[in-house]
Amino acid sequence: MIKQKAILFDVTLCAGCGECYNACKEANHLPETSDDFLKDHLSANTYTVVEEYGDVYTRKMCMHCVDPTCVSVCPVGAMEKTELGPVIYDGDKCLGCRYCMQACPHHIPRYEWNKVNPTVKKCIMCYERVKNGQQTACAEACPTGATLFGDRDELIKIAKERIESDPDTYYQKIYGLEEAGGTNVLIISPVPFDQLGFAENLPKDALPTYTAKALEKIPGVVAGGGVFLAAMYWLTKRKNQIAAEEKQNKIHSISGDEK
């Protein structure tokens, strides 16, 4: 059985140097989008950012869900959860429908607003590197060990050991262990995660399972309609929330490309 790979980010070790940000830009051939990386935002040209919260720094990137909602809602199979763990996408298949953007519980995928044939963009956890047995570019570049790459099971053990051995330093939780069914990006922190801009109200079950559970007791003749209604409910629920984000992301994307 293939062991899934993951990233463990330790907020207590992050110096806010931006080496992960720079390495991601270089590895993915992304253009410069900000004069100050701490003020940059996720966009079609920026797959990871470093954010400052008081005395600590954290990273934001695709969380690579164990059972990703973006994959389940994509009507053309452009999004794919790989055996190794990264969630990747095929730009040639992408219709630009943005269902993945509306469905993502972590609000990650970004849209190429300024392209004639736009697609969605996001971190793919350096999938080609990972396939070849290499670390992600961000983990390789991190000078403090704040970003680690390895087998998910092993990183969970490391995270638990750090939290248990130093309870006065760490908030007693591994973010991504259970959120929305778990993620392949795990985070440990000295402060509660909502203070770092992470959603703390996510269910433990993977979001695609809610539809499956609801349909278990529905006769097959109406199952198709049930899937459609469930999908429409979820997408409608997220529509208003993402509208403001899309507007802001469009502004950041366009202004970044002009630099």
UniProtKB/TrEMBL annotation:
The keyword NAD does not apply. One of its GO terms (cellular component) is cell envelope. [4Fe-4S] cluster 1 binds at C14, C17, C20, C142. CDD domains: HybA_like. It comes from the Bacteria. [4Fe-4S] cluster 2 binds at C24, C123, C126, C138. Binds 4 [4Fe-4S] clusters per subunit. [4Fe-4S] cluster 3 binds at C62, C65, C70, C104. The keyword Protease does not apply. It is found in: Cell envelope. Keywords: 4Fe-4S, Iron, Iron-sulfur, Metal-binding, Repeat. SUPFAM superfamilies: 4Fe-4S ferredoxins. Its main location: other. Residues 5-35, 53-84, 85-114 form the 4Fe-4S ferredoxin-type domain. One of its GO terms (molecular function) is 4 iron, 4 sulfur cluster binding. InterPro entries: 4Fe4S_Fe-S-bd, 4Fe4S_Fe_S_CS, FDH_Electron_Transfer_Unit, Formate_DH_Fe-S_su. [4Fe-4S] cluster 4 binds at C74, C94, C97, C100. PANTHER family: FORMATE DEHYDROGENASE, NITRATE-INDUCIBLE, IRON-SULFUR SUBUNIT (PTHR43545), IRON-SULFUR PROTEIN (PTHR43545:SF4). This is Fe-S-cluster-containing hydrogenase component. It comes from Ignavibacterium album (strain DSM 19864 / JCM 16511 / NBRC 101810 / Mat9-16).
